[in-house]
Automatic annotation (TrEMBL):
Keyword terms, alphabetized: Ribonucleoprotein, Ribosomal protein
Claim: Transmembrane is one of the keywords in the record: no
An MF annotation (GO) of this entry: structural constituent of ribosome
InterPro entries in the record: Ribosomal_bL17 (IPR000456), Ribosomal_bL17_CS (IPR047859), Ribosomal_bL17_sf (IPR036373)
One of the GO BP terms on file: translation
GO cellular component annotations of the record: cytosolic large ribosomal subunit
SUPFAM superfamilies in UniProt: Prokaryotic ribosomal protein L17
UniProt protein name: Large ribosomal subunit protein bL17c
A family per Pfam: Ribosomal_L17
Domain of life: Eukaryota
């Protein structure tokens, strides 16, 4: 039984999955919209929203915790200085997922994840 086992494994090892979401979260905050498969979008939403909530705190410990996930210094600065103030009055729901077309090679449902 899978009770209380949260999250999708996406056919990857734990370290590969963490690296995938670290890179995708960095790309999302850098470009504010990315295109990927729908299950990855849904999992990335959990990671991105936690990072935005950390950035809303704005203090040094929160910045250091976010730096564990976002390795590009310019993107980290953008998250704390530009993106987080936009959502200061909003309690969650910082991202939007839009279903895209089916991928041509294997028919996988694609999706766009973007910052609201």
């Amino acid at each position: 039984m899978r009770h209380r086992k949260r999250g999708r494994k996406l056919g990857r090892t734990t370290s590969h999955r963490k690296a995938l979401f670290r890179n995708q979260a960095t790309a999302l905050f850098e470009h504010e919209q990315i295109r990927t498969t729908l299950p990855k979008c849904k999992e990335l939403r959990r990671v991105a929203e936690k990072l935005i909530t950390l950035a809303k705190q704005g203090d040094l410990p929160a910045r250091r915790q976010a730096a564990k996930m976002i390795h590009k210094h310019a993107v980290l600065r953008k998250l704390f200085d530009d993106i987080a103030p936009r959502y200061q009055d909003r309690n969650g729901g910082y991202t939007r997922i839009i279903r895209g077309e089916l991928r041509k090679g294997d028919g996988t449902q694609m999706g766009y994840i973007q910052l609201v």
